[in-house]
Write a structure and sequence with these properties.
binds pyridoxal-5'-phosphate, 12 helices, Aspartate Aminotransferase, domain 1, globular, alpha/beta, Aspartate Aminotransferase, domain 2
Length: 390
């Protein structure tokens, strides 16, 4: 008999009743070290006092009105994001997938309004993840996402990850935009080289093509800059952000330059919940913390520590792990053992990690993780690896 919850997830036999900082308490009382943050969502850990205060204050004042009216909390967050980034304007959503929908619509509408309605095609990369909507799965391609869900939304093609030269050949008079994650998350923690991202920006500029960056997973301080593309010293035309920005409250946002957003006039897009006062109040509290230079500096310092210790772990368990990779607090261990076995062995040691493609185990801890928690994570992972060596 089908369960009352549609069984689309392969869930671990764990359920949590309370969270604090980097720790989650299981229903049976065990305390797990959370190195996954609900897939890069709890950027400030669990129950951060400032987020709890922001949400509960707003909850006692007003939950929802509608985008029929002005929403001051939305305007405050948009102003902050415009101040901190390349963007001139923001549209709020409830998820990363909804950001993919708008990014695609915005790019196509841009060319339509420029009198080039044939420019609808979007170039993406193999191994990407842009969400589970029809546009999201068509953009990413790949059998795992698309099989059985045809006919796919037309107008997407995928190039080999890392092959920037192929973008030049793939662009033609029908190309609207290129979409890419500066660091692939689901694809196995694969950072794009800064030179490659710069080169991609150059190719887009020379061909007048829009560059869409999907920073749903790698944005909001995750790499040690507020947004990952800042490392390459470039700016996108359109950027998708979700996951970390809500700190656990559902929130996404599409940021854009005035030029890229120029087709999106009144009536062209909307969302009932998008930019709701609760979500935007929490989002502003998250960005106010994460955008502080000292906060980001700490992420970079802890990244160095985690990296060094993960490399030590690989050296100590060469039959289980192959290499450490990633950037900021977005790291992966490519495994020799099966990644799911490593994640499961971690559960036995009361540590949460997240599997990814390419046989990788992902680490996306709260950005507020302490040095002691990094050491503790490595101890637990080492025990997990040892249990697999027996
Ligand atoms: C998670 C993710 C999405 C989809 O976000 P949802 O909030 O699950 O809809 C899109 N792009 C990237 C890079 C992601 O990691």
């Amino acid at each position: 008999m089908i369960p009352s919850v549609l069984p689309t997830y392969a869930r671990a036999p764990l359920s949590f009743v309370k969270g604090e900082g980097s720790w989650l308490t299981e229903a049976d009382g065990r305390r797990f070290l959370d190195m996954g943050s609900g897939i890069a969502v709890n950027a400030l850990g669990h129950a951060h006092p400032k987020l709890v205060a922001a949400l509960t204050d707003q909850a006692s004042a007003l939950w929802h009105t509608s985008n029929l009216y002005h929403i001051p909390q939305q305007e405050a967050l948009a102003d902050k994001l415009v101040d901190e980034t390349f963007a001139d304007t923001c549209f709020f959503t409830n998820s990363g997938t909804e950001c993919a929908e708008l990014a695609v619509k915005m790019a196509r509408k841009y060319w339509f309004e420029k009198g080039q309605p044939e420019r609808t095609e979007i170039i993406a990369f193999e191994g990407s993840f842009h969400g589970r909507s029809s546009a999201g799965i068509a953009a990413a391609g790949g059998d795992k996402l698309t099989k059985g869900f045809g006919p796919l939304l037309p107008g997407f093609k995928q190039l080999t990850w890392g092959d920037i030269a192929s973008v030049n050949e793939a662009i033609d008079e029908n190309t609207a935009a290129v979409i890419v994650e500066p660091v692939q998350g689901e694809g196995g923690i694969r950072p794009m080289l800064d030179e490659d991202l710069k080169e991609l920006r150059g190719i887009c500029d020379r061909n007048g093509v829009l560059l869409i960056l999907d920073e749903v997973q790698c944005g909001v301080g995750r790499t040690g800059k507020l947004f990952a593309h800042e490392w390459a010293g470039i700016a996108p035309d359109i950027m998708m952000v979700a996951k970390g920005i809500g700190g656990g409250f559902p929130l996404g946002v599409v940021l854009a330059s005035e030029e890229a957003a120029s087709g999106m006039v009144a009536g062209t897009h909307g969302s009932t919940y998008g930019g709701n006062p609760l979500a935007c109040t929490v989002g502003l509290a998250v960005i106010n913390e994460v955008s502080q230079p000292e906060f980001l500096e700490e992420v970079r310092r802890k990244s160095g520590l985690l990296r060094q210790k993960l490399e030590g772990l690989v050296a100590a368990h060469p039959d289980i792990f192959e290499e450490a990779r990633g950037t900021g607090l977005m790291m992966g261990l490519k495994c020799k053992a099966t990644n799911i076995d490593v994640v499961n062995a971690g559960y036995q040691q009361e540590i949460l990690t997240v599997p990814a493609a390419d046989n990788v185990v992902r680490f996306l801890p709260p950005l507020t993780l302490t040095d002691d928690e990094i050491s503790e994570a490595i101890n637990r992972l080492s025990k997990a690896a040892t249990s697999l060596e027996l």
